[in-house]
């Protein structure tokens, strides 16, 4: 049975979005409070002060503000320098992976290549994170990428009236597919965001998924995560037959969910070569007065940064 849920995972998520369309989740405007990295334009004056302060005090480039946002703008300038050589691909180099390695040499060939701040949301659903980001930040230098396992979800994003192809690129992608590349080169993203998505994949595939994503981040770039914590109300409500493996469950609609500890997530990110900026548990008591229910929620929120490359020689 667990194998069936893995093989048909795409079907279960497509069915979910066909039933609920864009009416299930609310737009996540709270994200900007928790993750100010998603609205960098609001902090422009602060960033400029940081950068000028760096120049005056001659602080090494690896120093940054606590949230790393001051560093991201500066880091973009470094990464926009084109490489001094160009490789000639062989005739067989027509698959996506080889095209993307070619894009690292010719940065103008990928969507959003002229942007100075790039955000990728993995597991975007119907755009409850993407559209608030685009609406909050009208900076023309911002470009948002978003992908989801479900082609139905991506179709709903692309047909949304707020979808602007000049500022956003939505695409279908399986986070666990090791053979399918992302449509951006390595070291090109400022922020990668994972909101209640890592928990939806098989635990033994999580590390490789995070490894692949970390390679897309620029030095100084951030991976932001919010997901289910161990002993969240949702975990305690599952019945015995719904447990697929330790702390990994299947819902009634066939979609799956894992419940993390802080240490597990820390291991995933640090093994991928990222440095901890934040790893906290958010415990909340929610009261549904209509149903007279008290719900004890446990979420984990993380920020991990890709280290700055040291200047050798």
Automatic annotation (TrEMBL):
It is found in: Cytoplasm. InterPro entries: Methyltransf_12, METTL2/6/8-like, SAM-dependent_MTases_sf. Keywords: Cytoplasm, Methyltransferase, S-adenosyl-L-methionine, Transferase, tRNA processing. The keyword DNA-binding does not apply. GO terms for cellular component: cytoplasm. Its EC number is 2.1.1.-. This is tRNA N(3)-cytidine methyltransferase. The lineage of its organism: Eukaryota, Metazoa, Chordata, Craniata, Vertebrata.
